């Protein structure tokens, strides 16, 4: 009988998937704001911009925690997840950049 257990994926850890969800929420805020109000140049950034900033900045300590706790344990899988987190963050920031410079 095989008694070895397979360890669960690192992606099931909240510190792995929460930054991606936070980036998705940030991306959604940008798109919904543009759909609702269009591309505006205001002096006051508004609630959407502040929420975007909080979500993006809030990811940094979560990603740091994930990197510290997971890289030594399973480096290859952790690097893939870190790349996914970076891609999700880049998608949110890239969308914001495109709308601000259009």
Brief account:
The protein has 102 residues and is mainly alpha-helical.
Characterization of this structure:
By secondary structure, the protein is mainly α. The protein has one domain (14-37, 44-100). It is 74% helix and 0% strand. It contains three helices and no strands. The chain has helices spanning 14-37, 46-70, 75-100. The chain is elongated and about 50 Å long. The N and C termini lie far apart (63 Å). The mean pLDDT is 90.
Write the layout of secondary structure elements.
Layout: H1 14-37, H2 46-70, H3 75-100
- Residue stretches low in confidence (pLDDT < 50, at least 5 long) are none
Bin the helical content. Answer: over 70%
Whole-number mean pLDDT: 90
The succession of helices and strands, N to C, reads HHH
List the keywords:
about 100 residues; mainly alpha; 3 helices
């Amino acid at each position: 009988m095989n008694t070895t257990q397979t360890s669960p994926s690192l992606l099931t850890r909240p510190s792995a998937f929460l930054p991606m969800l936070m980036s998705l929420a940030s991306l959604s805020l940008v798109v919904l704001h543009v759909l609702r109000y269009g591309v505006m140049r205001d002096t006051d950034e508004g609630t959407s911009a502040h929420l975007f900033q909080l979500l993006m900045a809030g990811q940094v300590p979560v990603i740091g925690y994930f990197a510290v706790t997971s890289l030594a344990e399973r480096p290859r899988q952790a690097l893939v997840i870190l790349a996914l987190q970076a891609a999700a963050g880049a998608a949110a920031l890239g969308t914001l950049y495109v709308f601000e410079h259009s």
